[in-house]
Request: fold
Amino acid sequence: MSNIATVTTPCGTIEGFQGEEGVYTFLNIPFAKAGRWQAPKAIPPFSGVLEAKAYGPAPIQAEPDPFFAKRNGDFLDVPTSEDCLNLNIWAADLKTPKKAVLFWVYGGSYIMGYNYKRLNLPEKLVKVHPDLLVVAPNYRVGVLGSLNLSSVDPDGAYRFSNNLALLDLIAALRWTNQNIEAFGGDPENVTMYGHSAGSNAISHLLVIPEAEEFFQKAIIQSSYMTDLGTVAMDTSEEIGRKFLELAGVSSLEEALALSAEQILEAQKKLFGFRYGGSKASKLFSPVQDELTVSSEAFRRLTEGDFKAKALMIGGSEGEYDQMFLKMNTEETKASVIQRNSDKVVTEADMEAFRLLHPEMTEKEAYMSVHNDLGLRLGGEWIGRACCSHIPVYEFTFRLRDPKEGWRALHGAPCNYVFGNLIPEGAPEQLSFQMMDVWAAFAKSGDPNTPAIPEWPKYEPDGAVMAIGEQWELDRGYWKKDFAFWKDRFAEKKWMP
Reply:
């Protein structure tokens, strides 16, 4: 570590360092404090100098599976703490003002993740684009980030406990707005970018009044507020009661006294049950509590009742294919039908969809049903809702794995955007092209660069940029699939 760098901000003086890539790095900056299951509170300005030279603790979460950690380049030993509300900042220099700010939100199904995963470290991106600055906050995950305590909290002291992940991110956005100018960032040019749960969170933040003053643009990739991306209130109540039962506690005081280990053990058991409520959902997605998340959030998008100025939306063509890689074709079909029982998917649907896509193998068509219904069409609903109000650019990442040959899996674009862990055999220029495009959008709200074909603003059934060996517009990309499945989505009631 060399070249110590000191920045004086409204919150206090912070000391970071200039790393090997020449990028100025500030780590483990606290942006808020929060008690267990409580909303975050701003930290008052501090005196003295804050040393920001080592990564801070990650949110409480289970230890990573060693196989997947190695495959994804994750750290195996990640210190965790409930005191985890810290953020990291990377900047090529500290003197040039008005840098565009990329506010990165990690994924992990709202049960794992932290702000310094190797795959998402942005030094290469910042080095290539020195007029871009990156901020990466932590947010609480799992039961500690979302738990309905209403059954043991009659006074409502913990009424915000359902959506702490979102509230943490709002606190980090507010800190960024107040302090990023000292690092050369422009608080009036902030673009949120997230993958998976991070994307889901950002799609909610688009229409949360407490957040929308602090950003101007968003890139949402591979998970969304639509459909399974939001938990109904009664489902949340059911999950909360089950957690307390599994943890062996019957009062708020007993829940607050649980150790982190006890919480994780009970959380693990939660996945052994199915939760109905008024609609099926994932365990820890944001909850329609009418405090932070409104049950009419999607309506706001359709009516243009939001402040974002531009959106990029997309993901991988084989998002969830990894679930089925070890299954044969018939096993895949049966599994997809079972996994999508809430959409009443039948064998006749599967065959009709397969005939709709003769360019796919039979198994790929079946996997695409799950990818569409479980995730990808959620982004298309948002694109259609917003494109008549602001510029929307849609993409699909279709580069097949250079080694294994399977379709691009969940999260594949991130390797190329950040320039990390790029698979051997990938197109040589692809990472630089994607860095350029993502940076162009973060700076101006327009992803077009001279190195790619002209990328038009999206309109319903319009062109999507397909990113692979080559960049090419796929005209009418969503027309067939959207028409085939649209009646299975509750969002249809809001669309004109």
Summary: The chain has a mean pLDDT of 96.
